[in-house]
Each structure stands twice: as C-alpha cells, then as structure tokens.
Amino acid sequence: MARADEPFDPVQKPRHYNSHPSSIECIELAHYYSFALGNVVKYLWRSGLKDETPSLVDLAKAEFYLKYAASEGVQTHKPEDYRIRMACETVLRKVLPHHGAAIATVLQSITEAMFCSDERLHQTLLQMALASLQLEILKQQAPIERELTT
Fold it and tell me: Could you report the per-residue pLDDT of 108-117, keeping only the tens digit for each?
C-alpha cells in the first residue's frame, strides 16, 4: 500500500489497487492465484474504486474470469503447498472483513478451490463462488432498475 506521504502512481501504485481499507495492496493477494482467478481478485478488489468505472462493470469482469476458470478447470497449487496456502490465507483474513458476505464467499471459495485436488469439489467451489458473485451483481442491479421504473 502506498504510504500517506507517498503519491499514487498510475502505473506502479494506482489508487484503485492501493486504497483498500485493509491497507493491503491488491497484488499481495492476487499473485497467489492463477491468471484467471487472479483477475477475479483484481476486479473484486477495485470494484467501485477505479475512476469512472461503475462497480457493476468490475463485477461483470470478475464474473467473466470466474466462468473462464471454471470452464478450464485450472488448479493453481497442489494441496501440499502448505506454506503458500498459509501465506494466502493470512492476507485473505485481513481483507475479508472489509467486504460483504457475497464477495467474501467468492474469495474464500476460489481460495479453497485452488488447493483442492478433487475435481468435483474444485468445480463445486468455483460454482459456489460464481453463484455468490451473480447474486451480488443482481443486488447491485436492483436499485438501478427500481430508479428506471419510478
């Protein structure tokens, strides 16, 4: 995270990846995941923080990458990669309290999936993450639709 006296930089320290309430920088968590799941983390992270990008756009991008990961069946780590899992979960514990239940479920589910050796369970965890993300998208769309009809 950029220090208070350190200016944000659009390339090395963009505000939307360094303004998380946990004081964690996005890359500190995203680098543990595959490309697709890392992008899910990235878009959930910056949702509502990137200048002029509506939150729903970032959530839709996260949904796209989550569907891709589920279709590819990508597993990032072996279950015995204990140190990597512990490091990832340590960062995740600092981040989760700053997200709602749906986004927290997505992050927890994709983390479990990336260490899961059972293909059925791996797919079930990714589908659970996808359902939670889609629920969040619907919740955020509902107020917009209500405004349009009134």
Answer: 999 999 888 8
- State the DSSP string of 11-26: TTB-HHHH--TT---T
Rounded CA-CA distance 83/63 in Å is 28
Token output for 55: 């939150």
Phi, psi of 50 (to 5 degrees): -80, 135
Q: How far apart are CA 123 and CA 47, in angstroms?
A: 25
Q: Which two tokens stand for residue 93?
A: 């514990």
d(CA 111, CA 138): 23
5 — phi, psi (to 5°)?
Answer: -90, 0
Tokens of 31: 């680098």
Model pTM score: 0.81
User: For the segment 53-91, what is each residue's pLDDT rounded down to a tens digit?
Assistant: 788 999 999 999 999 999 987 666 777 788 888 999 999
